[in-house]
Amino acid sequence: MQPLSAEVHQRIARISAHLNPPNLQMGEGSVLERSSCRAKGGAPGFKVAILGAAGGIGQPLAMLMKMNPLVSVLHLYDVVNAPGVTADISHMDTGAVVRGFLGQSELEAALTGMDLVIIPAGIPRKPGMTRDDLFKINAGIVRTLCEGIAKCCPNAIVNLISNPVNSTVPIAAEVFKKAGTYDPKKLLGVTSLDVVRANTFVAEVLGLDPREVDVPVVGGHAGVTILPLLSQVKPPCSFTQEETEYLTKRIQDGGTEVVEAKKGAGSATLSMAYAAVKFADACLKGLRGDAGVVACAFVASQVTELPFFASKVRLGRTGAEEVYQLGPLNEYERIGLVKAKKELAESIQKGVSFIRN
Ligand SMILES: NC(=O)c1ccc[n+]([C@@H]2O[C@H](COP(=O)([O-])OP(=O)(O)OC[C@H]3O[C@@H](n4cnc5c(N)ncnc54)[C@H](O)[C@@H]3O)[C@@H](O)[C@H]2O)c1
Ligand SMILES: O=C(O)C[C@H](O)C(=O)O
């Protein structure tokens, strides 16, 4: 074999420096920072941060947000493995510039200037656990992250995925109130997976394409607090009592179905990333000023006597600009609503007390 020329040696050295960047993690002057700067001339759009970006939801969510043409800058923050996920995602030839941030000391840099912050940070369920069993660990994680948001991007829209959503949203609200930055329109608990599941299961029963089906799901995001309004399905249709009971239970237990199938390896991640991106995209379209952007979310609400409730909201330039009433409920749904409100009231109070006491 011919010996390699000096020129070839130099080229190989250059390539290998790219593959093993000395300072991939971040910071001023790092390889990643410089390459981000080069890409800055790219598409205009919104700045989005994902907190918990290296997790089961975070990774596919990061990938899908990198593909979203409304995103110009994507910040990926986690307490582990953020540089690896960032390096990987940053090679996708889409418009958004990706930067990674590792650990608490980089949280503020991750959040500064963001328009939308999506939070899937925290531990997931194992078989036999309820979402409320996650409170002990996830409540503290959400508090810390929201303190960062209050300080660095108080005007950002927040999409909160971490469970138990029925308590973590009130926790976030209390943190923002304490910091004097609370805007109820900008804090949205993500319940879009319930809608995605409801559309899928209802379409199966009706023999339709799920993309043609729209099921409002109201209440909250745990067990009986998940209340699908099957009487309001579009296209208009009717169900037998047996179908109603089957569908309601399957939608309410959708998360548990995945937790059990995964046998200890976590909860829904891929369908959640899909649902989170659908919802984040709706928020960004609202921010852009598109008309008629409507989605279900768990928000500050006057629809019931509870301070938070999931229902359809209209998303606009300032967040959830309108919270829609529930519309007419049938007897089965009215009974479901009573049960949902009872459990929700306790979960909301638990979140509020975590910060106030
Ligand atoms: N709202 C919903 O519909 C819905 C659906 C599915 C899962 N979830 C919830 O989302 C959360 C994440 O689920 P997952 O499967 O991605 O879990 P995971 O364990 O795979 O990932 C969680 C990530 O969060 C990171 N993390 C932990 N502490 C952090 C901190 N202080 N700051 C930043 N990142 C931190 C972890 O390092 C990890 O990468 C869970 O609480 C789960 O119950 C909610
Ligand atoms: O069920 C879980 O624990 C995760 C999530 O809330 C879900 O609905 O899939």
TrEMBL record:
<comment type="similarity">
    <text>Belongs to the LDH/MDH superfamily. MDH type 1 family.</text>
</comment>
<feature type="binding site">
    <location>
        <position position="138"/>
    </location>
    <ligand>
        <name>NAD(+)</name>
    </ligand>
</feature>
<dbReference type="InterPro" id="IPR015955">
    <property type="entry name" value="Lactate_DH/Glyco_Ohase_4_C"/>
</dbReference>
<protein>
    <recommendedName>
        <fullName>malate dehydrogenase</fullName>
        <ecNumber>1.1.1.37</ecNumber>
    </recommendedName>
</protein>
<keyword id="KW-0816">Tricarboxylic acid cycle</keyword>
<feature type="domain" description="Lactate/malate dehydrogenase N-terminal">
    <location>
        <begin position="47"/>
        <end position="189"/>
    </location>
</feature>
<dbReference type="Pfam" id="PF02866">
    <property type="entry name" value="Ldh_1_C"/>
</dbReference>
<feature type="active site" description="Proton acceptor">
    <location>
        <position position="221"/>
    </location>
</feature>
<dbReference type="GO" id="GO:0006099">
    <property type="term" value="P:tricarboxylic acid cycle"/>
</dbReference>
<dbReference type="InterPro" id="IPR010097">
    <property type="entry name" value="Malate_DH_type1"/>
</dbReference>
<dbReference type="Pfam" id="PF00056">
    <property type="entry name" value="Ldh_1_N"/>
</dbReference>
<dbReference type="GO" id="GO:0019752">
    <property type="term" value="P:carboxylic acid metabolic process"/>
</dbReference>
<comment type="subunit">
    <text>Homodimer.</text>
</comment>
<dbReference type="GO" id="GO:0009507">
    <property type="term" value="C:chloroplast"/>
</dbReference>
<feature type="binding site">
    <location>
        <position position="131"/>
    </location>
    <ligand>
        <name>substrate</name>
    </ligand>
</feature>
<feature type="binding site">
    <location>
        <begin position="52"/>
        <end position="58"/>
    </location>
    <ligand>
        <name>NAD(+)</name>
    </ligand>
</feature>
<feature type="binding site">
    <location>
        <position position="78"/>
    </location>
    <ligand>
        <name>NAD(+)</name>
    </ligand>
</feature>
<dbReference type="GO" id="GO:0030060">
    <property type="term" value="F:L-malate dehydrogenase (NAD+) activity"/>
</dbReference>
<dbReference type="InterPro" id="IPR001557">
    <property type="entry name" value="L-lactate/malate_DH"/>
</dbReference>
<keyword id="KW-0560">Oxidoreductase</keyword>
<dbReference type="InterPro" id="IPR001236">
    <property type="entry name" value="Lactate/malate_DH_N"/>
</dbReference>
<feature type="binding site">
    <location>
        <position position="125"/>
    </location>
    <ligand>
        <name>substrate</name>
    </ligand>
</feature>
<feature type="binding site">
    <location>
        <begin position="161"/>
        <end position="163"/>
    </location>
    <ligand>
        <name>NAD(+)</name>
    </ligand>
</feature>
<keyword id="KW-0520">NAD</keyword>
<feature type="domain" description="Lactate/malate dehydrogenase C-terminal">
    <location>
        <begin position="191"/>
        <end position="354"/>
    </location>
</feature>
<feature type="binding site">
    <location>
        <position position="163"/>
    </location>
    <ligand>
        <name>substrate</name>
    </ligand>
</feature>
<dbReference type="InterPro" id="IPR022383">
    <property type="entry name" value="Lactate/malate_DH_C"/>
</dbReference>
<feature type="binding site">
    <location>
        <position position="197"/>
    </location>
    <ligand>
        <name>substrate</name>
    </ligand>
</feature>
<dbReference type="InterPro" id="IPR036291">
    <property type="entry name" value="NAD(P)-bd_dom_sf"/>
</dbReference>
<feature type="binding site">
    <location>
        <position position="272"/>
    </location>
    <ligand>
        <name>NAD(+)</name>
    </ligand>
</feature>
